[in-house]
Amino acid sequence: MSILDILLELQSNDLAIDQLQYRRDNLPQRIELHSILEQLNNATEELASLMAKRAALVDKEDELQRRSVSLGDRIKVLETKLYSGEVAAPRELQAMAEEVASLRAHRSELDDETLVLMEEVDPIEAQIDAVRHRIAELSAVVAELEANIASEEKELDAQIAVHQASRNAQAITIPSDLLVRYENLRSRLGGEGVALLVNGSCSGCHLKLPSVELERIRKAPLDALITCEQCGRILIRRSASDL
Ligand SMILES: [Zn+2]
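A: This is the predicted complex of the input protein with zinc ion.
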């Protein structure tokens, strides 16, 4: 097998690696994972906002209850005094009775407000449960997709390794200046540095070579290094009929 034939096989390994690498970089599961992670992120933010809302309501509820308890204490003190017989002046007794009534009314208002708040908390609790459930479901999907991606990557990596090993073995047999030239062409020309000469045309750029050039190539030995004038690729002839 000539050096150029080996170079062509090396290129087919390189192209196979490119394709496998492209597949590895563009796994459809990764796009799905990205979308699920976005949903998970939104759900987590939603949960945080619901928890904050609930905490604010519970704080308010606690504050109302504290005020209600403190009013209850004040009422108890006044009532004890009111019925103790210590105060005899009717005007003073009446004032105290009025204060007790007013405090009771205020406490009752606070207790009503507390009930309203408790009713507001209930639907938020239900929303929190629903979001938590959604987060658990999305997390399960994420875990499944990640496992799926990891196994696909492993499979593709194994295939890449096979081509890489074969390519490395081929590279050793190719003169380094030719290999460097091939690499430069390849990086410049979409992965293909070597092309076949088929019926007088370059299989890389698909242009027909000028007849003068073909005549020159025909006279050159089969293993001579020739290049396409248009694209610069290294041309490989399989036989005289390629011309
Ligand atoms: Zn060409």
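The CA atoms of residues 87 and 93 lie 7 Å apart. The radius of gyration is 42 Å.
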